[in-house]
Design goal:
There is one protein chain. This protein is α/β, with parallel strands linked by helices. The chain has nine helices and twelve strands. A five-stranded mixed beta sheet has the order 2-3-1-4-5, sandwiched between helices.
């Protein structure tokens, strides 16, 4: 199976999307070379105004005939409501593997923005899910020693606090409210909080932008270099998303965190 970029350009007419379907599909498929790797690009064969749902259904069938199973929406394609029809039919790259691998760099960038070192910052997590908090803390506790969890259900976290205290000598404070102070890094996993530095909830994920010193400049006309795009590139270059492929990617290519967009 293959992955591809789904892109939109205003090159199709209302007649092509309704009556001249065969003619339209001749303009759908193209490729772009990224680091000597051929990347498939499929243009949505619709108009931006009054897009044809019938044409979109035909497009979905066409992609499956092309053996596409994973897609990355270009920045322009994301803006079209009709692109949501792709969901449920294809795997989307969510960037979680990239975030997990670059988590230390992400937190360090947050601390830098707050004018401090990560080791001097206080990490404040907002969540009602102990399992989510535990998994996250296990990845970062070596780099940051002051951790607080804001939750509506403090009793749910008794096992978590005991675990970290006895296993690592790390005291985690459970609180009902959080006030953001200087040298704080606030991360939202679920619930609501406008003052969070990073949102890691599925409904409102923070976009993390990276710089790669023009290594992947061919991809920029289609998608910004965020966690989703990097995950797509890893899949393209290594054929899978695994701990090893993510590690190999970041060892091979110099990529750094530059900005957060909430």
């Amino acid at each position: 199976m293959k992955s591809a970029i789904i892109h939109f350009e205003p090159i199709f007419t209302k007649w092509e999307q309704r009556f001249f379907i065969k003619k339209a599909f001749k303009k759908v498929k193209s490729t772009v070379m990224v680091n000597k790797k051929e990347v498939l690009v499929y243009k949505l064969p619709i108009t931006e105004e009054n897009p044809s749902k019938k044409m979109m259904l035909r497009f979905l069938s066409y992609l499956k005939e092309e053996n596409i199973d994973s897609v990355l929406l270009s920045d322009h394609a994301k803006l079209l409501p009709v692109s949501s029809m792709l969901k449920g039919h294809f795997k989307f790259f969510d960037g979680n593997s990239v975030i997990n691998y670059k988590l230390y760099d992400i937190l360090r960038k947050c601390a830098e923005s707050a004018g401090t070192e990560l080791s001097d910052a206080t990490l404040k997590l907002i969540t009602n899910k102990p399992d989510v908090a535990k998994e996250f803390i296990l990845k970062v506790y070596k780099h940051i020693k002051r951790i607080k969890i804001k939750t509506e259900n403090p009793t749910l976290f008794s096992d978590l606090t005991s675990f970290f205290l006895y296993e690592y000598g790390l005291f985690i404070e459970i609180v009902g409210q959080i006030k953001k102070q200087e040298k704080d890094i606030v991360i939202l996993f679920d619930g609501s909080c406008d003052m969070a530095d990073i949102f890691f909830n599925n409904e409102n994920m923070t976009e993390i932008l990276f710089s790669a010193k023009n290594i992947f400049k061919e991809i920029i006309p289609y998608a910004r270099l965020n966690q989703n795009t990097l995950e797509f590139l890893i899949y393209q270059l290594y054929g899978n998303i695994s701990t090893q492929s993510v590690k190999s990617f970041f060892k091979t290519y110099s990529v750094r965190v530059i900005k957060f967009i909430k």
